[in-house]
Every structure is written in C-alpha cells, then in structure tokens.
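User: Hi! I'm working on a homework problem where we have to compare a predicted structure to a textbook description. Could you give me the structure for the chain below?
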Amino acid sequence: MTSKTDEATSPADAPADALGYEQARDELIEVVRRLETGGTTLEESLALWERGEELAKICRRWLDGARARLDAALAGSGEDGDDGDEGGGDSD
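Assistant: Happy to help. Predicted structure tokens:
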C-alpha cells in the first residue's frame, strides 16, 4: 500500500541513470508536494530540493532526447516531401 510513497521518500534507492521519464516525473511531483506541504526540517527540505533538482534534470534530458528524435524524424520525412511542398505558392 505505501510502496509508492516509500519509493518517493527514499530517493537514494533509485539511481538517477536508471529512472525513466515517467518515474522521474512522478517522483518530482511527490517531492514538490512534500515541499509545499511543509512540516519537514530544514535538512529534509534541502535534501528534497536537491533531489527535485536532480529529477528535473533527468526529465529535461528525456524531453531533450525526445525533441531530438522528433526533429530527426521530421527532417527525414521533410526530405521526401519538400520538393512537392515548395512547388506551391512560393514561386510567385
């Protein structure tokens, strides 16, 4: 029952490189929730903040990678369709 909460409260158990985007995002949401709720010591809050920064970087890397893949796919499909698209109204 509390395994999801336990995972979020023990970030050292999950190495940063092993987290997928959804896992990092979900843990980041939990970290933010705990920080917003308050009731933690200064040391706990600092540890949560640091973990949140690390998780945000992981999410950013995943999103940057996804953007690069999309850009590459669009560039690849654009090469096939560019000849037909440019023949439209730009030659006026």
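For your comparison, note the following. DSSP finds three helices and no strands in the chain. The CA atoms of residues 17 and 58 lie 8 Å apart. Good luck with the assignment!
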